[in-house]
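I had to read the description of the data format several times before I understood it. In essence, backbone conformation is discretised, so a fold becomes a row of integers matching the chain in length. I therefore recommend that a typical entry be quoted early in the introduction. For illustration, here is how one protein appears when written out as sequence plus structure tokens.

***
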Amino acid sequence: MIRRHIEDAIRRALADTPVVLLNGARQTGKTTIAQAVARKSGAQFFTFDDAATLALAAGDPAGFVGNLPAPVVLDEIQKVPDLFPAIKLAVDSNRKPGRFLLTGSANVMTLPRLSESLAGRMDVIPLFPFSAGERAGRREGFVKRLFAGEIAKSKPAFSGGDLAARLSLGGYPEAVQRKAADRRSAWFASYISTILQRDVRDLARVDGLHALPNLLKLLAARASSLLNLADVGRDATLPHTTLTRYLTLLETVFLVHRLPAWSPNLGKRLVKAPKLHLVDTGLACHLIGVDAKRLREDRSLLGRMLETFVVGELRKQLSWTEPQTALCHLRTAAGAEVDVIMERADGAVAAVEVKASSTVTPADFAAMRVLRDQLGKRFRAGAVLWLGDRIVPFGDRLWLVPLPALWAG
């Protein structure tokens, strides 16, 4: 069984917070982790995938919560939104840490009524598909080293393997376990159908969402690009209000996410549009109908999938190392861009650029140099991830770094 790095963060949260919500996409391992926590702590486990339990909770939320033992694990909490006010009342009467561990397959923080119910009482911990380090049995140290200015000490003493195969496989536990490409494709098809036909409709409370599958494919084809709602709406033949609502729904069930533009006071006109990424490259490849062979042949497509992969890996690492760190991108009106900007609460900044090539020139560091010079000491380090096998200094606090350093221990 692959150990999840987020488990330590869950234990720390349960030690000082009454309610902990493990939030993430379906089939990422939430229930498995929650059951393991229940076994170790002696907590009772209830899942709302069980129709009888769901009916009891929905019929009398206050009575259901009032009769629960402590501690307790409630799985798939988004199915019974009326439980949140009842949990709030229970916590207000007894704020003992670790009373409730919740799991959810919809982002409750995008649902105001639910998130407001437990504001200040709940710690939300995201769970993503397997990281590259988890699959390799290593706890990644990339982000920590980059902020510390010690990225040159990385020792990725192992090959990145077949990059195209890694990207097309993705990180969902069930997909990773399936060796045959056709069986993985069948799993992805079933997975998408389940989320769009059941989870999204449950959240939206309407049936008229027939355009969602096509919209999701269009978004997958635009992965790593600036999000232009007018262009997407035209191609999807959806009005702006409908498109905005559908995009929010797809984010709520963790299929896509927007990487916001970084907005420092640099005295320059910046492009404010977010970049669009899918939560998993295996899912993205399935949606646009490409396999590892196609990725190897299409360098442009490989580059876009690689950028989505790196953004996803950094999101995963930040979730268990530095959850208060903002993840953004930078692009100026003149076209200079940095794929990833990470900013800590103390103002420290680190930057990452992604190159699907074994050839890099000084021009690839140009935007980072400008950023470094304007931020001064706030800029800790910048790394261009490439497909070469050496770590090469490219000036003050700038490094050329092999891709496998991203998941080195």
Remarks:
- Residues 132-407 form one domain.
- The two ends are 19 Å apart (CA to CA).
- DSSP finds 18 helices and 13 strands in the chain.
